[in-house]
Amino acid sequence: MERKVILAFVLVSCMSFVLSLECYECQSDDKPCEAPMTKMCAEDEKFCLSLVYDGAYGRGCTSNKDICKPQSSGGVGFDKCYICETDLCNDS
Fold first, then answer.
1. Are 56 and 28 in contact (CB under 8 A)?
2. How many C-beta atoms lie closer than 10 Å to residue 64's C-beta?
3. What architecture does CATH give domain 21-84?
4. Do 50 and 90 form a contact (C-beta atoms < 8 A)?
5. Where are the domains of the chain?
6. 3 pLDDT higher than 80
7. CA 55 from chain center: how many Å?
8. Per-residue pLDDT tens for 78-91?
9. Which of the 8 DSSP states describes residue 42?
10. Which of 3, 16, 30, 41 has its CA 20 to 30 A from that of 9?
11. Do residues 47 and 85 make contact, with C-beta atoms less than 8 angstroms apart?
């Protein structure tokens, strides 16, 4: 019985690692990110984000799939905004 519990724990741990999303992450005030780092997103962050607003650039993880919509971002209309759901998809 104890062996089954340990096996189940290992399986769940591996599955949660595999299910984590990986996104590029960076912030720049004046130019596009040239060599962004990668980041494993938190469990609740299911989307990668890439945006440009008023000359500032950013990439990272988000839990808000509607952040690119002005009504979801406090009325802010981003110059460019892209949401995606696969590993390292926010490369632009």
1. yes
2. 14
3. Ribbon (2.10)
4. yes
5. 21-84
6. no
7. 21
8. 899 999 999 999 99
9. P
10. 41
11. yes
